[in-house]
Design goal:
Elements (H helix, E strand, L loop, with lengths): L2 H24 L13 E6 L5 H14 L2 E9 L11 H20 L7 E5 L2 H11 L4 E5 L10 H10 L3 E5 L4
Parallel strand pairs: 1-2, 1-4, 2-3, 4-5
């Protein structure tokens, strides 16, 4: 190998490293490190999550240096066993959770996504509370044909939540 070959080999390696560095810098990180003892903000939803609610939850989590915990709630109909897999509902939930995670990661907020099942939305939320602690809950209220917790479910959340709860009703 001549000196010119070595120089060309080094130059190609440097260019390849620079290209990889540029590509890595453009995409958001897959996961952000979570501080030990960080606050946790639960955002339970079913069907879809309004962008206004998501943006507000991300802003709160960012301001508090907290972990955003989006939780997709699955309702298990009574004709199925409570531990039924519900594959079709999970297929719908995964892209939504990935979109929430991507939006939070772009804002520099760590995410710990969940899927929880229950006989009702409130039953699923209660199961989350029993499994782990949260410092705040941001619950979406329905607005103008959009999805969210019903008034009865919101009343239950506000009455029974073990922590501070924010109900957000997006504008039209």
């Amino acid at each position: 190998m001549s000196g010119l070959d070595v120089v060309l080999l080094v130059l190609v390696a440097l260019l390849a490293a620079a290209l990889v560095a540029m590509l890595v810098a453009r995409r958001p990180p897959r996961r952000l490190p979570v501080r030990r003892g960080a606050r946790r903000i639960l955002v339970p939803f079913s069907g879809s999550l309004d962008q206004t609610v998501l943006d507000a939850a991300i802003r709160i989590a960012s301001a508090e240096q907290a972990v955003l915990v989006p939780a997709y709630l699955l309702v298990v109909p009574l004709q199925y066993a409570e531990d039924s897999p519900l594959r079709e509902q999970v297929k719908l939930a995964m892209p939504l959770l990935e979109a929430v995670e991507l939006a939070a990661l772009r804002a520099g907020v760590p995410v710990d996504a969940r899927i929880e099942k229950g006989r009702t939305l409130t039953h699923a939320v209660k199961r989350l509370w029993e499994a782990e602690p949260f410092d705040r809950i941001v619950a979406p209220a329905p607005a103008h044909g959009r999805e969210g917790f019903s008034p009865k479910e919101l009343a239950w959340l506000l009455t029974n939540a073990p922590t501070e709860t924010v109900v957000l009703k997006p504008a039209a």
